[in-house]
Amino acid sequence: MFWAARVSRFRSAPILTVGDAVASFVTNPDLTTTDMCWITKRDVHHQAWGPSRVAQNSSERLDSNSLIKPVEYRKLMPRKRLINVPDRKILVAVFFLCLPTIGSGAALFQMSIYTSTGDDNKSLTVDLLHQWANKGLVPFKKNIVTSSLPKRMLDSVVVANIPQLLITMSYYGYNNLMTTMLAAAEYDSYGVSSKSLRVTWPEKDSQQKSTYWLSIPYQYAVPILVLYVVLHWLVSQSTFYVLRIPYTPQGEAVWSDSISSLGLSPLLIFCALLIGSFIICLLILLSLKRFKSNMPLAGSCSAVISAACHPPEI
C-alpha cells in the first residue's frame, strides 16, 4: 500500500469520475470535438457526427470512414428524464430480471397460502398473517420422500438458493443503472450553476473537491445496500431446506416417515415481496426524474463531455 501511494504521486491523474473527465478535457481540449458542444450520446452511438474543421486541419484527424457529416442543431433538446440515459438493452435486461423475480416470489407466496390453508382460492387477510406469525414454517408436503433421500435433498437445496442468485444478479444490474443515471445527473448539474469539480486527485490550492465515492453517492448507496442486505436475509429465512426424521421411543429412525422438503415461511416471503417491490419502485421513480437543465445527454460518453469542455479563446 505504501509503494502504491508513492508511485501514484508520479502518475497522471486518473479518469474515474465525471469531474476527472471534465478537468482533463478543460486542461487538454480535444480538437476533434471543437464547435460541437451540442452533440449527444445518441449522436455518437449512431455515428451521426463528424470531425470538426479544426480537427480536419490538424494532426489529430480521425478516421474518415468511422464518421459521417456533422449534425446541425437549431435548438437544444427539451429536458430529458434519467431513464433516457442508460442503454435500452441494459434497461430492458434489468427490468426483465427484476420483474420475473418478483413474479416468481408472488407465485411462491400463493403456493404457500395454499399449502398452509389447503384452499386454493384463499386470499391474504390479517388473520392469516397472524396465523403465519405464530406458525412460521410451512413445508411442501408434495416433496415428501420415502426413498432416494440424497437426491431430493440436493434438489431442495438448489431450489432454495436460486432466489439468492437472482437477487445478486439484479443487484449488479440495479447498481449499473443507478451509476449511469446518477453520473449523468452529476454532469447535468454543472450546467445549472457554477460548482467545484469532484475529482480523484484535487489540484493544490484549487476549489476542486476530493471524491468520497466512485459510482453511487452515499445518500443512495447506503439505503440501497441496506435494503438488499435485508432482502437477502428475508429470502434466506423464507425458503430453506427441511429434513425431518422421526424416531421411535427406542431411538430408531423411521425412514419411511422421513420428510425431505423445501420449507417456506409465508410471512417472510410476504415481507421480501414488499422490500423487492419497494426497491423497484425507487428505481422507477428515480428514472422518471427530469434533469435540471437541457444540456445534451452525455451519460459516460467521453466524446460528449469533451465537446462541452472547450474554454473560450482569450
Automatic annotation (TrEMBL):
It comes from the Eukaryota. The keyword Membrane applies. This is Uncharacterized protein. Keywords: Membrane, Transmembrane, Transmembrane helix. The chain crosses the membrane at residues 90-114, 156-174, 220-243, 263-286.
